[in-house]
Amino acid sequence: MTRTEPNDGAQTLERGLAVLVELSRHPEGLTTAQVAAACGLHRSITTRLLVSLQRTGFARREEGGAYRVGPAVAELLGLSRPQLREVAEPVLRRLARTVDATASLVEVVDGFAVTTLVAEPPSDGPRFSYRLGNRDPLDRGAGGVAALAAGPPRPGEPDRVAAARADGYLVTHGELNFGAHAIAAPLPGWGRPAAVNIVTNRQPVIDAARQPLLDAVREISAHVPNPEPSGRQ
Question: Which residue among 41, 90, 127, 128 has its CA within the 20 to 30 Å range from the CA of 141?
Answer without folding.
Answer: 90
